[in-house]
């Protein structure tokens, strides 16, 4: 469990170094970058879905990035709305699907456990708590939130500690899990999808990297299998579209209407972005990237992927 907490704190630390008080968007080769909004504090979570953007402005005087509510902006009309709770949770993760968003708060104590909470947010409905995923030497671990257009989704994995003595090493096993769409503030299971360690949404579809069934070590974080599959399915029915087999361990996914981008870590410690055609599943490109690469995004114009640097 300590390893899982350390990884979360590392993510928060990386966000602290990567954020900026300016939100920018590419405006074409001639115009370069264009400032579209300004925040008076650091930005901990940011998401864009076409004309809509959302972000979590930082709470001042905190040791780690801590988002104070969620702010929405319509890039066409310029209208902007912010939502906060009092006292505010510490928001840092964000996924956007049109006018609706999912936001996450990091693990906080819940009696003898700790739990990561997912919230729904929208300009018309404000902030509402969706579910807390609680764990302590097992439980339900939130593994992803994602959104695109009218689809919002989350994934969680159930797991347990098999050998409480951890002798010679802790053994963990996956006991279940789901990938759910979030529709009108309710979770709807996507049928036929295995418990997912990584999740992406794009063009009405879901991409998932299944969680490995068991692993050893002090880190309780679920993870994909090395050289394991990545599956793309229809978000509303779970109908399969394509399955590919990247070389390495999946670190992140991005999905567009015609391509799937997969950030992998090779067995030798190097990293690459593999790009596959949808629905054929053929490997189109494999590009070496920095080991500090953290996130992927996908563009509908050519289905290109974008590397986002870490700390």
Describe what you observe in this structure.
This protein is mainly beta and 311 residues long. The chain has 2 domains: 1-136, no CATH class; 144-311, Thrombin, subunit H (Beta Barrel). It contains 1 helix and 25 strands. It has one helix spanning 2-18, and strands spanning 22-26, 33-38, 43-49, 52-57, 70-74, 80-83, 93-97, 100-109, 114-122, 126-135, 138-148, 151-161, 171-183, 186-189, 196-202, 205-210, 214-216, 230-234, 240-244, 249-255, 259-265, 271-277, 283-289, 293-298, 305-309. Strands 11, 12, 13, 14 and 17 form a 5-stranded antiparallel β-sheet that branches. Strands 3-4-5-6 form a 4-stranded antiparallel β-sheet. A hairpin with a 5-residue loop joins strand 18 (230-234) and strand 19. The longest helix has 17 residues, at 2-18. It is globular, with a radius of gyration of 19 Å. The two termini are 23 Å apart. Residues 1-30 and 302-311 have low confidence and may be disordered.
Question: In summary, what is this structure?
Answer:
The protein has 311 residues and is mostly beta strands. The protein has one helix and 25 strands.
Descriptive terms for the model:
5-stranded antiparallel sheet, 311 residues, mainly beta, Thrombin, subunit H, 2 domains, 5% helix, 4-stranded antiparallel sheet, 55% strand
Largest sheet: 5 strands, antiparallel
Beta-strand content: over 45%
Total number of beta strands: 25
CATH class of the largest domain: Mainly Beta
Overall CATH architecture of the largest domain: Beta Barrel
Q: What is the CATH third-level topology name of the largest domain?
A: Thrombin, subunit H
The arrangement of helices and strands along the chain is HEEEEEEEEEEEEEEEEEEEEEEEEE
Average of the residue pLDDT scores: 82
Unreliable stretches: 1-30, 302-311
């Amino acid at each position: 469990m300590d390893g899982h907490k350390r990884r979360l704190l590392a993510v928060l630390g990386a966000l602290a170094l990567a954020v900026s008080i300016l939100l920018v968007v590419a405006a074409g080769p001639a115009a370069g970058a264009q400032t579209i909004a300004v925040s008076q504090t650091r930005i901990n979570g940011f998401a864009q879905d076409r004309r809509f953007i959302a972000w979590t402005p930082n709470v001042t005087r905190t040791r780690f990035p801590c988002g104070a509510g969620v702010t929405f902006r319509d890039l066409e009309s310029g209208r902007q709305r912010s939502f906060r709770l009092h006292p505010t949770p510490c928001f840092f993760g964000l996924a956007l699907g049109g006018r609706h968003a999912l936001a996450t708060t990091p693990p906080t104590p819940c009696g003898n456990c700790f739990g990561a909470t997912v919230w729904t947010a929208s300009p018309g409905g404000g902030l509402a708590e969706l579910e807390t995923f609680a764990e302590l030497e097992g439980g339900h671990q939130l593994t992803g939130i994602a959104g695109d257009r009218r689809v919002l989704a989350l994934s969680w994995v159930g797991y347990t500690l098999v050998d409480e003595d951890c002798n010679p090493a802790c053994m963990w096993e996956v006991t279940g899990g789901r990938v759910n769409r979030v529709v009108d503030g309710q979770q709807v299971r996507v049928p036929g999808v295995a418990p997912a360690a990584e999740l992406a949404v794009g063009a009405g579809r879901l991409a998932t990297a299944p969680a490995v069934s068991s692993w050893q070590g002090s880190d309780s974080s679920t993870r994909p299998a090395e050289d394991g599959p990545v599956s793309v399915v229809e978000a509303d029915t779970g109908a399969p579209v394509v399955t590919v087999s990247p070389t390495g361990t999946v670190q992140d996914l991005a999905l567009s209407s015609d391509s799937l981008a997969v950030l992998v870590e090779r067995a030798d410690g190097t990293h690459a972005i593999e790009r596959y055609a949808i629905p054929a599943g053929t490997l189109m490109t494999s590009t070496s990237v920095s080991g500090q690469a953290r996130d992927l995004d996908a563009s509908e114009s050519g289905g290109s992927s974008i590397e986002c640097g870490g700390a």
